[in-house]
Specification:
Blueprint lengths: L7 H5 L4 H24 L9 H28 L8 H16 L10 H13 L1 H22 L5 H40 L6 H17 L3 E8 L5 E5 L8 E5 L1 H4 L10 E5 L11 E5 L7 E2 L6 H7 L3 E6 L5 E9 L6 H63 L8 H27 L5 H19 L2 E6 L7 H21 L4 E9 L2 E9 L11 H9 L3 E5 L5 E9 L1
Parallel strand pairs: 9-10
Antiparallel strand pairs: 1-2, 1-8, 2-3, 4-5, 4-7, 5-6, 7-8, 10-11, 11-13, 12-13
Helix pairs in contact: 2-3, 2-5, 3-4, 4-5, 4-6, 5-6, 5-7, 6-7, 7-8, 7-11, 8-11, 11-12, 13-14, 14-15
Length: 561
């Protein structure tokens, strides 16, 4: 069975830097060995004639310079993967020239082909190793045919068969090694991705996206529900923009995804061609068994149409208080039974952690509810009531003045301001008491309303900008609101700026908040806003202040999501 091999770009990032550096050194050692062999035993290599001697010197010397240049470049840039796959094909070309100049099929240098097969297989996986093996076989045959018109066909057949057989074995085991490294990397990543602060839905969405990317699938679907619930939760990560969706389904709508035995593993791959029906694979494995059993293809017709899949694997979820299945779907790749087994191992690694997050989330929600009740009462008694008294006092003073008094307009404006602030504080206390969820749209509306009040009361224009498709969890949205609100008040209290801007974006797994304001008073001294720094640190984020840009002071906050 040929192992499933991912694209090279995905493997490059997870390669072994130490092993790659060793490859550069070994390439140089091979080049030096070839030069020394050419100098020590020129007669054994057919190097007696002047023209052939010059050609051999150019080829062997050129490869030595090639190997030395690659090693120096890798050491200078400290990145052994800067060259990509092309360097292995260049090596193959050099080795073909060496074999051609030193006797073709009788050349001592034909084992050099195994160096490039080894390095490409263990660096890039089975697919690239197989291509290099076929290229090496073709190069050996061509070099032998060009060197000698009287070819010993038996000798050539033996050598090419040896290169093909050993090259395939090397590529196969190299592909398994690469796949194993990627699997371990994924298991490490999904063990670290869960953060109770951001909730279970975002943890599931991140896990689905990483699983989809690992399998190079078109979609990753998760269907689950807790014990006692009527509706199923359907998570899907097949959107073109990479975002995950969540919907709730009744029992009838979820039934097509639950046609298998509850604890069965499933693997399906459509036929390679309508004329090759025997290449269709539909198998299932019951828990506790090692043998796979065939599934009738008609049982999967509705499911494959629903998933729009040419291949998929499915595994049950190991939930203590619930049930569900996870599907990895592809419209291009053919998944194997090993892919289904690893999906089951991945689910066994992730979902106990997710269940713990659900438990922590409930405990935190109960504690937060009790704390909100206390905060709402304190807010009403210690903050709202004094503001109400202030408004009554201002209203009493206003009633003692005539309408044409110079201070009447200012007092009316102050009354409006206190009335609006009291209304906002009452709404805030109500939200605190009830724990109202705040979506992305509601967050932006609230921030723009705050910016409008700052402009109305203090004549400071602050623009709020947000990235398209910005995704912020409910809990984080409340923290972001406080951070941005504090940033606007810092502009009002600590600067003489009349304009400012606040931008929100999501990049590299981090929520980035940038608060800018003009500096009409000139460059400011380095500083660190204490309250913003405390809030950012509490969320596991970082804060940086840029005072060097002329005419602008910027506070940048990055919070991991």
């Amino acid at each position: 069975m040929i192992p499933h091999s991912p694209p090279a770009a995905a493997l490059q990032t997870g390669g072994d830097a130490v092993g790659a550096s060793m490859v550069f050194i070994m390439r140089l050692v091979l080049a030096l060995t070839a030069i020394l062999t050419l100098l020590v035993a020129p007669g054994d290599l057919g190097n007696r004639h002047g023209a052939r001697s010059l050609l051999n010197a150019l080829i062997f010397g050129g490869y030595l310079l090639h190997a030395l240049a690659l090693l120096l470049a890798a050491r200078r840039y400290r990145n052994p993967f800067w060259h990509g796959k092309l360097v292995y094909w260049i090596d193959l070309g050099w080795f073909a020239l060496m074999v051609y100049c030193t006797g073709g099929g009788n050349s001592f240098f034909f084992p050099f082909f195994f160096f490039v097969i080894l390095t490409s297989s263990f660096q890039w996986g089975f697919d690239e190793g197989a291509r290099i093996t076929l290229g090496a076989t073709f190069a050996l045959t061509l070099a032998t045919w060009l060197t000698d018109s009287h070819i010993n066909h038996g000798h050539l057949l033996l050598r090419t068969a040896f290169v093909l057989a050993l090259g395939y074995m090397i590529a196969y085991w190299g592909g398994l090694g690469v796949a194993q490294r990627r699997r371990l990397s994924l298991l490490r990543d999904v063990s670290r991705l869960s953060n109770p602060r951001f909730g279970v839905d975002q943890s599931i969405a991140t896990m689905l996206k990483q699983t989809r990317d690992f399998y190079h699938a078109s979609n990753c679907v998760l269907l689950m529900r807790d014990s006692g619930e009527e509706l199923w939760q359907l998570h899907s990560s097949g959107a073109p923009d990479g975002r995950s969706s969540l919907s709730r389904l009744p029992e009838g709508a979820a039934a097509p995804l639950l046609v298998f035995e509850p604890q069965a593993l499933v693997q399906f791959a459509a036929a390679l061609h309508p004329r090759l029906p025997r290449t269709l694979e539909a198998r299932t494995r019951a828990p506790g068994e090692s043998r796979w059993h065939s599934l009738p293809p008609e049982q999967l017709e509705q499911l494959t149409d629903l998933l729009d899949a040419s291949s998929f694997v499915s595994a049950p979820l190991p939930l203590r208080k619930g049930e569900g299945r996870i599907y990895v779907v592809s419209d291009r790749h053919r998944f194997s039974r090993n892919d289904a087994v690893f999906l089951q191992q991945l689910a066994a690694q992730v979902f106990p952690v997710i269940e713990n997050i659900v438990l922590l989330d409930r405990l935190a929600s109960d504690a937060a509810f009790r704390e909100r009740q206390k905060i709402a009462r304190d807010l009403h008694d210690t903050t709202i009531q004094p503001y109400i008294g202030l408004r009554h006092g201002i209203s009493a003073v206003r009633q003692t003045l005539q309408s044409d008094h110079p201070l009447s307009a200012e007092l009316d404006k102050l009354l409006d301001m206190t009335t609006q602030v009291i209304g906002d504080m009452r709404q805030f206390a109500r939200n605190v008491r009830q724990g109202a969820a705040q979506t992305d749209a509601e967050l932006l509306v609230a921030l723009r309303r705050q910016a409008q009040q700052v402009q109305q009361f203090y004549d400071i224009q602050i623009t709020i900008q947000a990235q398209d498709g910005l995704s912020i969890s409910d809990r984080l949205a409340a923290e972001v609101f406080q951070i941005v609100n504090e940033g606007m008040h810092n502009i009002r209290k600590h600067t003489r700026a009349r304009t400012g801007s606040i931008s929100l974006s999501n990049a590299d797994g981090q929520l980035r908040i940038r608060i800018e304001n003009e500096t009409p008073e000139g460059p400011t001294a380095p500083f660190l806003p204490g309250s913003l720094a405390e809030r950012s640190t509490a969320l596991g984020g970082t804060i940086a202040v840029d005072c060097d840009t002329p005419g602008v002071t910027a506070v940048s906050i990055a919070i991991p999501v």
